[in-house]
Amino acid sequence: MTPVISVRDLVKTYRVGEVDVRALRGVTLDVMPGEFVALTGPSGSGKSTFMHLAGCLDRPTFGGYVLNGRDVSQLDKRALARVRNREIGFVFQGFNLLPRTTALEQVELPMLYGAALAGKERRARAAAALDAVGLGARLDHHPNQLSGGQQQRVAIARALVNQPALLLADEPTGNLDTRTSIEVMGIFQKLNAEGLTIVLVTHEPDIAEYGTRIVSFRDGRVRSDRPVTVRRGAAVELRAYEEQAALEVDAA
Ligand code: ADP
To answer: What does the pLDDT look like over 145-180, one tens digit per residue?
Structure first.
């Protein structure tokens, strides 16, 4: 099987004034199709830098990156942007939705840059993507009419509408309460069960355990890399939450 991400001795050095900041000091890692990798590590350990490189937002200083069988480590900015638009979906901590724009329009946006699709086809695909994250009844809602969890689901639908090979998520539950975090992790687990490859940055150990593998960074290097042996299941946990809530209503 061809890895989705295959990086070799990845080095990224930022020049800040006279000083070189060595953000990645030689990372070698393969992510296979269908994996759900949680990237953890202290602040400053290089997680975001790795995600930038993996997401084709930037190029390594040294080292190789083969994305889905294609060497992307030397591509120029325009070529990187094309690869990014076709192969990668992004989800961020702050949702990054446009205000005064409906859920349907947000999800249509990535399709404006890709293959030329008729408006009708675009809307149909956007509606299907929103339906897949449980927002089929909220197509016309603006972000301020949606909860945090619903906004993140719009962002997930937007990330997936071009059917990328890889979903990259940077602290996607960082702005969400516990229960909503579990809901969002439930969506990631469902998508992953359907075959989507996911790499997610989190500093929360319990969030990492929804994945299949935990890679921990330290000082720009991989410090540990292990499978998740006892995986958390968001669907089961949500049912337990609901039962608990029902008991509390009964007791009141
Ligand atoms: P993390 O996401 O684990 O907090 P980062 O990848 O953001 O780690 O940072 C790794 C190191 O690289 C840190 O020392 C940080 O200050 C530095 N760094 C990250 N991005 C830049 C940048 N654009 N310019 C200069 N230094 C940077």
So the answer is: 999 999 999 999 999 998 998 999 999 999 899 999
- H or E, element range at 160: helix 148-160
Site to substitute for ligand 1 among 11, 12, 13, 14, most atoms within 8 A of C-beta: 14
CATH of the domain at 187: 3.40.50.300
Domain interval for residue 160: 5-251
Do 197 and 35 meet the contact criterion of CB atoms below 8 Å apart? yes
Contacts of 38 (CB under 8 A, 6+ apart): 200, 201, 202, 207, 208, 209, 210, 211, 213, 214, 215, 228
Ligand 1: centre distance to CA 232 (Å): 30
Instruction: Provide the domain count of the chain.
Output: 1
* pTM of this structure: 0.93
Closest residue by CA, ligand 1 atom 1: 44
Distance 59 CA to ligand 1 centre (A): 14
Distance 237 CA to ligand 1 centre (A): 35
